[in-house]
Fold this protein.
Amino acid sequence: MLNKEKIASFNESYLATHKQNLNFLGENLSKKNLDLNNVINKLSDFQIAIPSWALGTGGTRFGRFPLGGEPNTLEEKIKDVGLLHALNRSSGAISLHIPWDIPEDYKKMKSLAHELDINFDAVNSNTFQDQSGGTHSYKFGSLSHIDKAVRKKAIQHNKEVIDHGVKLGSKALTVWLADGTSFAGQQSFRGAFQRTLESLQDIYAHLPADWKLLIEYKPYEPNFYSMVIPDWGTSHLISSELGEQATTLVDLGHHLPNTNIEQIVAILMHLNKLGGFHFNESKYGDDDLTVGSLKPYQLFLIFCELVQGMEETSNPDLSWMIDASHNLKDPMEDLLQSVETIKIAFAKALLVDYNELKTFQQKNDVAACQSMLQDAFRTDVRALVVESYYASGGVIDPLKAYRELKIRQKLIEARGVDSKSTGL
Ligand SMILES: [Mn+2]
Protein backbone atom coordinates (compact mmCIF):
# COMPACT_ATOMS: atom_id res chain seq x y z
CA MET A 1 0.00 0.00 0.00
CA LEU A 2 2.93 2.29 0.66
CA ASN A 3 6.18 2.36 -1.21
CA LYS A 4 9.15 4.68 -1.51
CA GLU A 5 7.71 6.43 -4.56
CA LYS A 6 4.42 7.24 -2.84
CA ILE A 7 6.24 8.55 0.21
CA ALA A 8 8.60 10.65 -1.91
CA SER A 9 5.82 12.13 -4.01
CA PHE A 10 3.82 13.01 -0.88
CA ASN A 11 6.87 14.66 0.71
CA GLU A 12 7.62 16.72 -2.39
CA SER A 13 4.79 19.18 -1.79
CA TYR A 14 5.61 19.69 1.91
CA LEU A 15 9.39 19.65 1.88
CA ALA A 16 10.07 23.37 1.27
CA THR A 17 7.82 24.49 4.13
CA HIS A 18 9.27 21.88 6.44
CA LYS A 19 12.86 22.94 5.75
CA GLN A 20 11.87 26.55 6.35
CA ASN A 21 10.36 25.62 9.73
CA LEU A 22 13.42 23.58 10.63
CA ASN A 23 15.83 26.40 9.75
CA PHE A 24 13.79 28.90 11.73
CA LEU A 25 13.79 26.66 14.79
CA GLY A 26 17.50 25.92 14.31
CA GLU A 27 18.30 29.65 14.32
CA ASN A 28 16.26 30.21 17.47
CA LEU A 29 17.90 27.32 19.26
CA SER A 30 21.41 28.21 18.07
CA LYS A 31 21.84 30.55 21.05
CA LYS A 32 21.47 27.56 23.30
CA ASN A 33 24.24 25.15 24.05
CA LEU A 34 22.59 22.39 22.05
CA ASP A 35 23.55 19.89 19.35
CA LEU A 36 20.45 19.85 17.16
CA ASN A 37 21.58 16.85 15.10
CA ASN A 38 22.03 14.90 18.29
CA VAL A 39 18.44 15.75 19.28
CA ILE A 40 17.14 14.67 15.86
CA ASN A 41 19.11 11.42 16.03
CA LYS A 42 17.70 10.65 19.46
CA LEU A 43 14.21 11.31 18.13
CA SER A 44 14.82 9.09 15.09
CA ASP A 45 16.06 6.22 17.28
CA PHE A 46 13.06 6.46 19.58
CA GLN A 47 10.66 3.62 18.74
CA ILE A 48 7.26 3.20 20.37
CA ALA A 49 5.59 -0.20 20.27
CA ILE A 50 2.03 -0.58 19.05
CA PRO A 51 -0.12 -3.11 20.90
CA SER A 52 -2.03 -5.52 18.69
CA TRP A 53 -5.29 -4.70 20.50
CA ALA A 54 -5.12 -0.99 19.74
CA LEU A 55 -5.50 -1.50 15.99
CA GLY A 56 -9.22 -2.20 16.20
CA THR A 57 -11.98 0.02 17.53
CA GLY A 58 -12.32 -0.17 21.28
CA GLY A 59 -15.51 0.40 23.14
CA THR A 60 -17.09 0.64 26.53
CA ARG A 61 -19.44 -1.76 28.26
CA PHE A 62 -22.21 0.26 26.62
CA GLY A 63 -21.21 -0.48 23.09
CA ARG A 64 -18.70 -0.41 20.32
CA PHE A 65 -18.82 1.40 17.00
CA PRO A 66 -16.51 -0.34 14.53
CA LEU A 67 -15.34 1.54 11.45
CA GLY A 68 -14.40 -1.32 9.15
CA GLY A 69 -11.16 -2.60 7.72
CA GLU A 70 -9.95 -3.78 11.12
CA PRO A 71 -7.27 -6.48 11.15
CA ASN A 72 -8.77 -9.96 11.50
CA THR A 73 -5.58 -11.90 11.97
CA LEU A 74 -2.15 -11.53 13.50
CA GLU A 75 -0.76 -11.18 9.99
CA GLU A 76 -3.06 -8.20 9.33
CA LYS A 77 -2.16 -6.65 12.69
CA ILE A 78 1.54 -6.83 11.83
CA LYS A 79 0.79 -5.30 8.43
CA ASP A 80 -1.09 -2.41 10.07
CA VAL A 81 1.85 -1.68 12.33
CA GLY A 82 3.99 -1.90 9.22
CA LEU A 83 1.86 0.84 7.64
CA LEU A 84 2.22 3.08 10.68
CA HIS A 85 5.96 2.47 10.75
CA ALA A 86 6.31 3.20 7.04
CA LEU A 87 4.63 6.57 7.63
CA ASN A 88 6.46 7.74 10.76
CA ARG A 89 9.43 5.34 11.04
CA SER A 90 8.80 5.48 14.80
CA SER A 91 6.53 2.50 15.42
CA GLY A 92 8.94 -0.32 14.70
CA ALA A 93 7.54 -2.81 17.20
CA ILE A 94 4.34 -4.71 17.96
CA SER A 95 3.26 -5.94 21.37
CA LEU A 96 1.21 -9.13 21.32
CA HIS A 97 -1.54 -10.28 23.59
CA ILE A 98 -1.84 -13.98 24.32
CA PRO A 99 -4.18 -15.81 23.73
CA TRP A 100 -5.58 -13.30 21.21
CA ASP A 101 -2.46 -13.38 19.03
CA ILE A 102 -1.10 -16.91 19.15
CA PRO A 103 0.76 -17.38 15.84
CA GLU A 104 -0.07 -20.39 13.71
CA ASP A 105 3.18 -20.06 11.83
CA TYR A 106 6.00 -18.43 13.82
CA LYS A 107 8.45 -18.40 10.94
CA LYS A 108 5.98 -16.69 8.65
CA MET A 109 5.11 -14.02 11.24
CA LYS A 110 8.77 -13.40 11.97
CA SER A 111 9.68 -12.98 8.33
CA LEU A 112 6.70 -10.70 7.70
CA ALA A 113 7.71 -8.54 10.66
CA HIS A 114 11.30 -8.53 9.46
CA GLU A 115 10.22 -7.46 5.99
CA LEU A 116 8.31 -4.52 7.50
CA ASP A 117 11.17 -3.68 9.89
CA ILE A 118 9.04 -4.53 12.92
CA ASN A 119 10.31 -6.12 16.17
CA PHE A 120 8.27 -8.10 18.66
CA ASP A 121 8.01 -6.06 21.84
CA ALA A 122 6.88 -7.34 25.25
CA VAL A 123 4.28 -10.12 25.21
CA ASN A 124 1.23 -9.69 27.42
CA SER A 125 -0.53 -12.41 29.36
CA ASN A 126 -4.25 -12.44 30.00
CA THR A 127 -5.76 -13.77 33.20
CA PHE A 128 -8.44 -11.10 33.43
CA GLN A 129 -10.98 -13.06 31.40
CA ASP A 130 -11.89 -16.72 31.06
CA GLN A 131 -11.03 -18.46 27.83
CA SER A 132 -13.60 -20.74 26.27
CA GLY A 133 -13.21 -24.35 27.25
CA GLY A 134 -11.37 -23.45 30.43
CA THR A 135 -11.88 -25.67 33.44
CA HIS A 136 -11.05 -23.03 36.06
CA SER A 137 -12.39 -19.50 36.29
CA TYR A 138 -10.52 -16.26 36.99
CA LYS A 139 -13.67 -14.65 38.36
CA PHE A 140 -12.15 -14.48 41.84
CA GLY A 141 -8.55 -13.91 40.79
CA SER A 142 -5.72 -15.63 39.00
CA LEU A 143 -2.19 -15.47 40.45
CA SER A 144 -3.71 -14.57 43.84
CA HIS A 145 -6.61 -17.05 43.72
CA ILE A 146 -7.47 -18.88 46.93
CA ASP A 147 -7.58 -22.19 45.00
CA LYS A 148 -4.18 -23.56 44.18
CA ALA A 149 -5.46 -25.22 40.98
CA VAL A 150 -6.53 -21.86 39.54
CA ARG A 151 -3.19 -20.28 40.47
CA LYS A 152 -1.42 -23.16 38.78
CA LYS A 153 -3.38 -22.61 35.59
CA ALA A 154 -2.61 -18.88 35.60
CA ILE A 155 1.09 -19.55 36.24
CA GLN A 156 1.14 -22.08 33.41
CA HIS A 157 -0.51 -19.55 31.08
CA ASN A 158 2.18 -16.96 31.82
CA LYS A 159 4.90 -19.52 31.14
CA GLU A 160 3.29 -20.37 27.82
CA VAL A 161 3.18 -16.66 26.93
CA ILE A 162 6.93 -16.51 27.55
CA ASP A 163 7.41 -19.56 25.30
CA HIS A 164 5.42 -17.91 22.48
CA GLY A 165 7.47 -14.76 22.92
CA VAL A 166 10.77 -16.65 22.81
CA LYS A 167 9.83 -18.14 19.44
CA LEU A 168 9.12 -14.66 18.07
CA GLY A 169 12.14 -12.90 19.53
CA SER A 170 10.40 -10.92 22.28
CA LYS A 171 12.46 -9.99 25.30
CA ALA A 172 9.87 -9.20 27.96
CA LEU A 173 6.67 -10.37 29.60
CA THR A 174 4.20 -7.78 30.87
CA VAL A 175 1.90 -8.88 33.65
CA TRP A 176 -1.13 -6.84 34.48
CA LEU A 177 -3.28 -8.40 37.17
CA ALA A 178 -6.98 -7.73 37.46
CA ASP A 179 -6.88 -9.56 40.80
CA GLY A 180 -8.47 -7.88 43.78
CA THR A 181 -11.74 -7.57 45.65
CA SER A 182 -14.89 -5.55 45.29
CA PHE A 183 -16.16 -6.00 48.83
CA ALA A 184 -14.50 -5.47 52.19
CA GLY A 185 -13.74 -8.73 53.90
CA GLN A 186 -13.89 -10.69 50.64
CA GLN A 187 -10.25 -11.75 50.89
CA SER A 188 -7.24 -11.43 53.16
CA PHE A 189 -4.94 -8.63 51.90
CA ARG A 190 -1.88 -10.43 53.25
CA GLY A 191 -2.92 -13.79 51.87
CA ALA A 192 -3.61 -12.43 48.38
CA PHE A 193 -0.28 -10.55 48.32
CA GLN A 194 1.69 -13.60 49.45
CA ARG A 195 0.02 -15.92 46.94
CA THR A 196 0.66 -13.41 44.12
CA LEU A 197 4.31 -13.09 45.09
CA GLU A 198 4.77 -16.87 45.10
CA SER A 199 2.99 -17.24 41.74
CA LEU A 200 5.22 -14.55 40.22
CA GLN A 201 8.32 -16.25 41.67
CA ASP A 202 7.29 -19.40 39.82
CA ILE A 203 6.84 -17.42 36.55
CA TYR A 204 10.09 -15.52 37.11
CA ALA A 205 11.98 -18.82 37.32
CA HIS A 206 10.78 -19.59 33.78
CA LEU A 207 12.14 -16.32 32.37
CA PRO A 208 15.08 -16.60 29.94
CA ALA A 209 18.23 -14.85 31.19
CA ASP A 210 17.94 -11.98 28.68
CA TRP A 211 14.27 -11.28 29.42
CA LYS A 212 12.56 -8.67 31.59
CA LEU A 213 9.43 -9.13 33.66
CA LEU A 214 7.35 -5.94 33.66
CA ILE A 215 4.87 -5.63 36.50
CA GLU A 216 2.01 -3.21 35.97
CA TYR A 217 -0.08 -1.70 38.77
CA LYS A 218 -3.53 -0.17 38.91
CA PRO A 219 -5.46 1.37 41.81
CA TYR A 220 -8.93 0.12 40.90
CA GLU A 221 -10.95 -1.59 38.15
CA PRO A 222 -12.12 -4.19 37.44
CA ASN A 223 -12.14 -4.59 41.19
CA PHE A 224 -13.45 -1.61 43.12
CA TYR A 225 -12.48 -2.19 46.74
CA SER A 226 -8.90 -3.42 46.46
CA MET A 227 -6.40 -4.47 43.84
CA VAL A 228 -3.60 -6.88 44.74
CA ILE A 229 -1.03 -4.62 42.99
CA PRO A 230 -2.62 -1.18 43.38
CA ASP A 231 0.40 1.11 43.15
CA TRP A 232 4.04 1.48 42.15
CA GLY A 233 5.20 0.80 45.70
CA THR A 234 3.61 -2.65 45.72
CA SER A 235 4.88 -3.37 42.21
CA HIS A 236 8.37 -2.31 43.28
CA LEU A 237 8.18 -4.40 46.44
CA ILE A 238 7.34 -7.47 44.35
CA SER A 239 9.94 -6.78 41.65
CA SER A 240 12.62 -6.30 44.33
CA GLU A 241 11.70 -9.65 45.89
CA LEU A 242 11.80 -11.36 42.50
CA GLY A 243 15.21 -10.17 41.34
CA GLU A 244 17.10 -8.07 38.87
CA GLN A 245 15.07 -9.01 35.78
CA ALA A 246 11.81 -7.82 37.33
CA THR A 247 10.87 -4.16 37.03
CA THR A 248 7.88 -1.87 37.39
CA LEU A 249 5.85 -0.74 34.41
CA VAL A 250 4.15 2.65 34.57
CA ASP A 251 0.84 2.96 32.73
CA LEU A 252 -0.12 6.63 32.71
CA GLY A 253 -3.82 5.83 33.16
CA HIS A 254 -3.27 3.63 36.19
CA HIS A 255 -3.08 6.39 38.79
CA LEU A 256 -5.57 8.24 40.89
CA PRO A 257 -6.19 11.81 39.68
CA ASN A 258 -3.34 14.28 40.32
CA THR A 259 -0.75 11.64 41.17
CA ASN A 260 2.77 12.96 40.62
CA ILE A 261 3.80 10.42 37.99
CA GLU A 262 7.06 12.20 37.14
CA GLN A 263 8.22 11.70 40.72
CA ILE A 264 7.41 7.98 40.52
CA VAL A 265 9.46 7.78 37.32
CA ALA A 266 12.41 9.58 38.93
CA ILE A 267 12.51 7.35 42.01
CA LEU A 268 12.10 4.09 40.10
CA MET A 269 14.94 5.07 37.76
CA HIS A 270 17.08 6.05 40.74
CA LEU A 271 16.59 2.46 41.96
CA ASN A 272 17.24 1.05 38.43
CA LYS A 273 13.79 -0.49 38.59
CA LEU A 274 11.74 1.27 35.92
CA GLY A 275 10.99 -1.25 33.19
CA GLY A 276 8.72 0.50 30.79
CA PHE A 277 5.87 2.75 29.91
CA HIS A 278 2.31 2.51 28.68
CA PHE A 279 1.23 5.80 27.14
CA ASN A 280 -2.33 7.06 27.24
CA GLU A 281 -4.18 9.94 28.87
CA SER A 282 -6.34 9.96 31.94
CA LYS A 283 -8.93 12.49 33.05
CA TYR A 284 -10.88 10.53 35.65
CA GLY A 285 -9.36 7.07 35.75
CA ASP A 286 -8.22 4.53 33.21
CA ASP A 287 -9.94 6.42 30.40
CA ASP A 288 -7.46 5.31 27.74
CA LEU A 289 -7.62 8.65 25.93
CA THR A 290 -4.96 9.87 23.51
CA VAL A 291 -1.66 10.54 25.27
CA GLY A 292 -1.01 14.25 25.86
CA SER A 293 -4.45 15.30 24.66
CA LEU A 294 -5.35 16.78 28.05
CA LYS A 295 -2.18 17.22 30.11
CA PRO A 296 0.75 17.82 27.77
CA TYR A 297 2.76 19.61 30.47
CA GLN A 298 2.64 16.55 32.71
CA LEU A 299 3.82 14.40 29.81
CA PHE A 300 6.71 16.83 29.26
CA LEU A 301 7.66 16.74 32.96
CA ILE A 302 7.65 12.93 32.84
CA PHE A 303 10.01 13.07 29.87
CA CYS A 304 12.29 15.49 31.70
CA GLU A 305 12.70 12.82 34.39
CA LEU A 306 13.15 10.10 31.77
CA VAL A 307 15.84 12.07 29.92
CA GLN A 308 17.73 12.76 33.15
CA GLY A 309 17.26 9.19 34.34
CA MET A 310 18.56 7.75 31.06
CA GLU A 311 21.66 9.98 31.33
CA GLU A 312 22.37 9.80 35.03
CA THR A 313 21.26 6.37 36.29
CA SER A 314 22.01 2.77 35.39
CA ASN A 315 18.34 2.01 34.84
CA PRO A 316 17.96 -0.69 32.14
CA ASP A 317 16.65 0.19 28.67
CA LEU A 318 12.96 0.98 28.76
CA SER A 319 10.06 -0.59 26.87
CA TRP A 320 7.79 2.03 25.30
CA MET A 321 4.26 1.23 24.29
CA ILE A 322 0.98 2.98 23.56
CA ASP A 323 -1.85 1.46 25.59
CA ALA A 324 -4.99 3.29 24.58
CA SER A 325 -8.47 2.46 23.40
CA HIS A 326 -10.02 4.14 20.39
CA ASN A 327 -13.75 4.47 20.74
CA LEU A 328 -14.36 7.48 18.48
CA LYS A 329 -11.33 7.94 16.25
CA ASP A 330 -9.85 5.74 13.57
CA PRO A 331 -7.33 3.74 15.67
CA MET A 332 -4.59 4.21 13.07
CA GLU A 333 -5.06 7.99 13.09
CA ASP A 334 -5.00 8.03 16.86
CA LEU A 335 -1.82 5.97 16.96
CA LEU A 336 -0.11 8.40 14.57
CA GLN A 337 -1.20 11.30 16.78
CA SER A 338 -0.03 9.46 19.89
CA VAL A 339 3.44 8.77 18.52
CA GLU A 340 3.76 12.40 17.44
CA THR A 341 2.72 13.70 20.86
CA ILE A 342 5.14 11.40 22.66
CA LYS A 343 8.00 12.51 20.41
CA ILE A 344 7.11 16.17 20.89
CA ALA A 345 7.29 15.73 24.68
CA PHE A 346 10.61 13.90 24.32
CA ALA A 347 12.01 16.60 22.01
CA LYS A 348 11.06 19.37 24.45
CA ALA A 349 12.64 17.49 27.33
CA LEU A 350 15.84 17.17 25.27
CA LEU A 351 16.02 20.98 24.99
CA VAL A 352 16.48 21.48 28.73
CA ASP A 353 20.04 22.09 29.91
CA TYR A 354 19.93 19.96 33.05
CA ASN A 355 23.34 21.11 34.25
CA GLU A 356 22.11 24.67 34.23
CA LEU A 357 18.93 23.55 35.98
CA LYS A 358 21.07 21.98 38.70
CA THR A 359 22.95 25.24 39.29
CA PHE A 360 19.64 27.02 39.82
CA GLN A 361 18.48 24.21 42.11
CA GLN A 362 21.73 24.60 44.06
CA LYS A 363 20.87 28.24 44.67
CA ASN A 364 17.20 27.52 45.42
CA ASP A 365 16.33 29.88 42.58
CA VAL A 366 12.80 28.58 42.24
CA ALA A 367 11.65 31.06 39.58
CA ALA A 368 14.65 30.32 37.35
CA CYS A 369 14.09 26.56 37.67
CA GLN A 370 10.46 26.92 36.68
CA SER A 371 11.33 29.27 33.79
CA MET A 372 13.87 26.85 32.38
CA LEU A 373 11.35 24.05 32.13
CA GLN A 374 8.61 26.29 30.80
CA ASP A 375 10.90 27.82 28.20
CA ALA A 376 11.53 24.36 26.76
CA PHE A 377 7.87 23.41 26.99
CA ARG A 378 6.81 26.56 25.14
CA THR A 379 9.20 25.95 22.25
CA ASP A 380 7.48 24.67 19.12
CA VAL A 381 9.60 21.59 18.36
CA ARG A 382 7.37 20.05 15.71
CA ALA A 383 9.92 20.62 12.95
CA LEU A 384 12.42 18.45 14.86
CA VAL A 385 9.93 15.61 15.11
CA VAL A 386 9.02 15.95 11.43
CA GLU A 387 12.71 15.89 10.54
CA SER A 388 13.09 12.66 12.53
CA TYR A 389 10.35 11.10 10.35
CA TYR A 390 11.70 12.51 7.13
CA ALA A 391 15.36 11.72 7.74
CA SER A 392 14.43 8.11 8.52
CA GLY A 393 12.49 7.66 5.28
CA GLY A 394 9.01 8.47 6.58
CA VAL A 395 6.52 11.14 5.57
CA ILE A 396 6.52 14.78 6.61
CA ASP A 397 2.94 14.69 7.89
CA PRO A 398 1.86 11.11 8.74
CA LEU A 399 -1.79 11.90 9.53
CA LYS A 400 -2.24 13.93 6.36
CA ALA A 401 -0.55 11.23 4.29
CA TYR A 402 -2.75 8.54 5.86
CA ARG A 403 -5.81 10.50 4.74
CA GLU A 404 -4.52 11.59 1.34
CA LEU A 405 -3.45 8.07 0.48
CA LYS A 406 -6.90 6.83 1.57
CA ILE A 407 -5.45 4.04 3.67
CA ARG A 408 -8.60 3.35 5.70
CA GLN A 409 -10.73 3.12 2.56
CA LYS A 410 -8.26 0.65 1.09
CA LEU A 411 -8.29 -1.44 4.27
CA ILE A 412 -12.10 -1.53 4.18
CA GLU A 413 -12.02 -2.57 0.53
CA ALA A 414 -9.61 -5.37 1.36
CA ARG A 415 -11.11 -6.59 4.64
CA GLY A 416 -14.72 -5.49 4.57
CA VAL A 417 -16.79 -3.25 6.83
CA ASP A 418 -17.54 -5.98 9.36
CA SER A 419 -13.99 -7.14 10.04
CA LYS A 420 -13.40 -7.38 13.75
CA SER A 421 -10.14 -7.34 15.59
CA THR A 422 -9.74 -10.46 17.70
CA GLY A 423 -10.01 -10.24 21.44
CA LEU A 424 -12.12 -7.11 21.62
MN1 LIG B 1 -1.31 -0.90 30.35
In short: The mean pLDDT is 96.
